[in-house]
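Reopening this one. Same input as before:
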Amino acid sequence: MSVLPDYAVRSDDPVRPDRSALRVGVLYGGDSPERAGSIVSGEAACKALSAQGVRAELIDLTDLDLAALCGRIDVALLAAHGLGGEDGKVQGALDLLGIPYTGSGVLASATGMHKMRFKELMRSDLIDTPRWVDISPSWSTETTISTAALTLGYPLFLKPVSGGGSLAAGIARNSTELRDLLTQARERPYDGYMIEEYVPGTPCTVGVLETDGELDTLPVHAVETDRPFYDYDAKHDLSLRRETCPAPLPDLVTTRLTQLALRAHRRIGAHGVSRVDFLVSPDGRTPMLEINTVPGLSPNGNLATMAAAAGIPYEEMILRVLDTAFTKPAYVP
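Same output, byte for byte:
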């Protein structure tokens, strides 16, 4: 177990420590399919901290013995996306080691990462989310196709149950396309998949960011792309998307999205920072897709774009994310 200095110990009445006295470990990389995006997040966040006089060290999670962090760092800034970094596993290890870390705890991280559990919670709160079918491992391809078609109808959207960045996802407009997607899925490093109804609309996202212990939402971010959907390439290539922030939405829709984002954040017990994704359909429907408890931290990412629209420079945003490590209650499930 680590022996932390007084300024690094969380309490029920937390006080933000002197940042200049901290040794910050920016945990990034790992071996998830989202490693490339995590590297961009981690490197940018580390550079931003260093530019403001904070002692920051990049630490790749690949083959890392987390116990070795005791005595090496005082706090972890999490920039690891996807499996192993965003799903509660790293969070749980850091809790056991007594090392404060940014963002949500184990339960909220795991719930947010598992799309079906998250959607079930949202549906129980009467929040609109696309209808879905859980693909049972025992089902044959033909059983999956017939079940999805009868339950949801085409077009359909296939995605991993626990994954992000739109990796291994795609639209199927008929049984042939769905069969192709299911065949490709077997070659991907994900344990489970789900099929959703396809809802046409504009992808929108709302950032939730804590400042001085108080939660607030950032301006709604909207994106358009000429790709079939807002896929991994469009999310990481500025030339493949057109962004608007604040999004040009009716006031009532903007208010609805921001209120729903806060509800989702609080419903799963998230802490400090999150990003909640929606679709805004031409018919007025605004289904919630998912929550990201470790949103991307790159300067060109959605969170940074929303922060800039709120008048928060990138380096200040990273400091606010860092501060979330010290505003948790003494115990977070």
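So the earlier flakiness isn't reproducible anymore. For the record, The longest strand covers residues 202-211.
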